[in-house]
Fold this protein.
Amino acid sequence: PDHARMMRPKPQRGRGRTPSLASPPRLKSSTVKSAVLVVTSFLVGCAVCATVLVAQRHGGVGGASSAAQGSKGFDARGPPAARESGFSRASVPLRPLHAEGGSEGTPHSQNHLRQVALDGAPPLPGRQQRRTASTPGDAAADTSSSSPSPRSVLDGVRVLVAIASYDFAQIPHLEEVLDSYHDLCAAGSHVDVVIHTTVPYPVALIDLLNTRLTCVNPSPGAGLKVTVVLKSPGIRLNLVDCHRELFYRKIDEYDLFIYSEDDIRVTPKTVAAYLTETNRVQELVSGDPLLASNFNIGIVRYEYSFPPVTIDDKTRGATENVTRVYWEHGWKPVVPKAVDKVDHEVLGGEYVSMGNHHQGMYLATRDLLKYWKERKGCQFDVVRQRPGMKKNPGQPTEGTQRVWMSSQMLYGGKHCNVKQVLPIDRFGALTVLHLPNKNYRRIGKKGRLGGYKDGAKEVEFADGTESYEGVDPSLLTAMQLHIALRKSFPRKESQTYEGIDMVDEIDRGKYVNKKQEYLATVDQSIRAFNEYVARGGVMSENDMDNHRW
């Protein structure tokens, strides 16, 4: 320390002093503060600019504005007053598209296709997609578009769903189906679901479903309404026909139409994939909507290959090798017998079609339904019976009435002859779960696919004499919990009701087994439902005590 003090230079006083090497000059505190302020302001400015640019690129600052919200109700008995669309786009049309850098009507160049998914929605990448503009003007238009685009392809899309559900035999599956359409509302769409059935729904079941199906999406374009439409049991297999008249009566009120049996789960992913691929097909056929109406994006159903054992703690290892199976498409070799490329010079490299095009459902845009109505040999709006044998009309030649109405009339070569197509690279997005998960067990049985060998077992069907061991009665059911909550926390009556509607469209002239008993049950159920609605959706004690179906 002493040596260090001797070597340290003494400070010099006066005006002519020079700074010491051991004591560098100190910055004033005000200077440091100013520098920090400048740097901070610069960084904040950069962040604000970036935010503004991103917002302008994806929907505009503050979000895209929406049009006035449409009517909340759905009248299944007749066309309501015209409703405004719940989103900024007027519809989801198959519209003419043109090549980049060209004028309207200019044919597409196969090497310069631009994927446009639903009026500005973000396109899906495709193998033939080209994002580079052909001129500087195109580049500027591509990057500085002032029109806001939706956040999702599903935003504000108006969807009408018709479900054929004869009775309560598949009520567990129907519950899952309704949940999936609730998810579609949560994704931003406005969904009206019409259930055609022959049995009245008890008030307690409607009240339970109301607690599940309230759509809380704040978007003005989103919404969910469920209507139960009663038909006479005498309609039998023709219950599947009811959706067709409904679709064409309301064709100008919706963008997308979905018909389905009551055991097929359709998710928002399914709908988004359908809408995107529908527009992509039109683009690939030179943007001509008439040419595009020759095709429709198809659906493939799957099940899970669970072994024929009850899965419990002892057998849970049996699910190790369980996987999805396409039980309706088992022909070998897979290509070209089960699935093959589409016979089209452009679509052939992008899309395939199934050898068996039965799918138990279909989706169609408004424009496609209109084109199929006028299509030669199609008349898709006209309900008619499935083809039968000439000498025995009761024996179908191309599937039952439900197969005819869901698939064969549309895709059959002797009828509408619309080509079912599925994208090769996004095939899985158009597959849906068949909830009963039982049909795959028919494979290998006598008369079924793979069941033509000697000794094949017969398919056994129910004859009404079956008995089943029930579950432990101590299990808490959803209805038991719901009734307990309603009794413990009673709701106040109200003058407004927003929930599931039930409409009587029963043709009382049709023959029905035990007709008087059936009609008395219907009248009692309708009366109880109307009283429930008048109370604002509040159940009575009688409703809670008589909830079985």
